[in-house]
């Protein structure tokens, strides 16, 4: 089955950006992927979107959504590394009707125009940063990550040197569902809005109101920019994937002359990426 999934994209291209030379598409064979969904102030979310054609997902309570997730990439075609995403679920094009955003949230990439605007995307490797910013305009910077994977929970503790950014913990609980929906991302490169469709195949567990899953925030610029969006104290949903594979291709330009969306830049440095399994 894995051979069938990864054979769906046959053409390959070599790219070089900064210290990264890599082959597209990038194959992700095995990872730990887990995250939490929170609510945030809809007006503050709308104010930072780089295009007026991007619309935040509005829930029945009038709040927008924001997701924080971690990836411990163990086997990929570009080596192992860690990554954490702060993403804003939104719809490109026609604005959803009030109080129907929950439909887009449930359907995800099956809903026209649905995708995740990549707000922050720290990684542990300079090559991953250079590739992400160079090809897609992803808002990557270098951070240190320590993953702790146990039978009870999955956790990522992230710093930039001695500055704590966040600690994310997701309990292993929830309903099992097969997930073959691609992940769609939006990002900005050279004032161009990029849409990238990432095929994936896996099994997901999701849990509503996961009271024992949480994020603790540091005082890092990434953490402060998220807290300024009035993110809720508690998540309304958790997810994790017991198994997953994905294919990251190049994206397509869908709009020009949008606002810059560079995110926190950080600096060149060698970061740590550790993981333990108990």
Number of helices: 5
Name the CATH class. Mainly Beta
**CATH topology assignment:** Acetoacetate decarboxylase-like
Main β sheet profile: 11 strands, mixed
Tell me how many strands there are.
18
User: Which term fits the overall shape?
Assistant: globular
H-E string: HEEEHEEEHEHEEEEEEEEHEEE
Radius of gyration: 17 Å
Number of domains: 1
| Low-confidence runs of at least 5 consecutive residues | none
What is the helical fraction, as a range of percent? Answer: 10-25%
Computed structural class: mainly beta
Task: Based on the coordinates given, report the CATH architecture.
Answer: Beta Barrel
β-strand amount? over 45%
Distance between the termini: 28 Å
Average the pLDDT over all residues and give the rounded result.
95
**CATH H-level homologous superfamily name:** Acetoacetate decarboxylase-like
Structural features:
single chain, 278 residues, mainly beta, Acetoacetate decarboxylase-like, 13% helix, 49% strand
Please provide a written account of the structure.
- The chain has 278 residues and is mainly beta.
- It has one domain (22-261, 268-277): Beta Barrel (Acetoacetate decarboxylase-like), CATH 2.40.400.10.
- The protein contains five helices and 18 strands.
- The strands form three sheets. Strands 3, 4, 5, 6, 7, 11, 12, 13, 14, 16 and 17 form an eleven-stranded mixed beta sheet that branches.
- It is globular, with a radius of gyration of 17 Å.
- The mean pLDDT is 95.
């Amino acid at each position: 089955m894995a051979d069938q999934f990864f054979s769906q994209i046959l053409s390959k291209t070599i790219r070089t950006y900064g210290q990264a030379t890599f082959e597209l598409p990038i194959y992700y064979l095995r990872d730990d992927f887990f995250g939490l969904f929170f609510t945030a102030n809809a007006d503050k979310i709308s104010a930072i979107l780089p295009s007026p054609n991007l619309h935040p997902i509005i829930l029945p309570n009038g709040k927008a959504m924001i997701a924080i997730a971690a990836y411990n990439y163990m086997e990929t075609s570009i080596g192992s590394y860690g990554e954490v995403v702060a993403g804003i679920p939104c719809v490109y094009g026609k604005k959803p009707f009030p109080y129907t955003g929950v439909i887009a949230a449930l359907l995800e990439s099956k809903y026209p125009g649905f995708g995740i605007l990549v707000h922050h995307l720290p990684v542990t490797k300079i090559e991953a940063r250079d590739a992400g910013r160079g090809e897609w305009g992803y808002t990557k910077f270098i951070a240190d990550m320590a993953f702790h994977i146990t039978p009870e929970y999955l956790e990522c503790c992230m710093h930039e040197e001695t500055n704590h950014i966040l600690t994310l913990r997701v309990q292993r609980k929830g309903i099992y569902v097969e997930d073959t929906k691609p992940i769609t991302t939006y990002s900005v490169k050279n004032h161009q809005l990029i849409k990238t469709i990432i095929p994936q195949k896996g099994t997901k567990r999701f849990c509503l109101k996961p009271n024992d899953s949480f994020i603790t925030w540091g005082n890092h610029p990434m953490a402060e920019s998220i807290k300024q969006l009035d993110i809720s104290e508690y998540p309304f949903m958790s997810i994790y994937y017991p198994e997953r594979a994905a294919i990251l291709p190049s994206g397509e330009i869908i709009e020009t002359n949008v606002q810059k969306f560079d995110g926190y830049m950080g600096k060149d440095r060698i970061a740590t990426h550790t993981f333990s399994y108990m």
